[in-house]
Amino acid sequence: MRTPLKLLVGLGIPYGTVAGMLPWVASVDRPILGVPFVYAWIFGCFVLTSACLFSCWLLFDRHLDAVD
Predict the structure, then answer these.
(1) Domain containing 46: what range?
(2) Averaged pLDDT, 34-58
(3) What per-residue string of b and e applies to 4-43 under the rule 16 or more CB within 10 Å gives b?
(4) Other CB atoms closer than 10 Å to residue 49's CB: what's the count?
(5) DSSP class of 33
(6) Cβ atoms within 10 A of the Cβ of 47, count?
(7) For 35, which DSSP code?
(8) 40 and 29 in contact (C-beta within 8 Å)?
(9) Which parts pass through the membrane (predicted)?
(10) CA-based nearest residue to 3, from 62, 67, 56, 68
(11) What's the domain count of the chain?
(12) Residue 65: is its pLDDT beyond 80?
């Protein structure tokens, strides 16, 4: 049960954010701090992906480092 949840958090959320929302994001023409919205969105996805991978490590894989 943990592996599907780990894959959903580590891969599913970032993939869904980038691929699922990109058609909507590409239609927005508002800049954020002078940066086009689509670029700001992709940068935010980088941060989200890092947060998802960190949470996967924290919730599922942290105890594996202590065994070695």
Answers:
(1) 2-67
(2) 92
(3) eebeebbeebbeebbeeeeeebeeeeeeeeeeeeeebbee
(4) 17
(5) T
(6) 9
(7) B
(8) no
(9) 7-26, 38-60
(10) 56
(11) 1
(12) no
Which pairs with CB-CB distance under 8 Å and at least 24 residues apart come from 32-38? none
Neighbours of 57 (CB within 10 A): 14
Quote the DSSP letter at residue 30. Answer: -
Alpha carbon distance 46, 37 (integer Å):
14
User: What's residue 11's pLDDT?
Assistant: 87
Question: Tens digit of pLDDT for each residue in 10-41?
Answer: 889 999 998 989 889 989 999 999 999 999 99
Q: Which residues have C-beta within 8 Å of that of residue 35, sequence separation ≥ 6?
A: none
Backbone angles phi, psi at 35, to 5 degrees: -100, 135
What is the pLDDT of the chain when averaged over all its residues? 86
End-to-end CA distance of the chain: 23
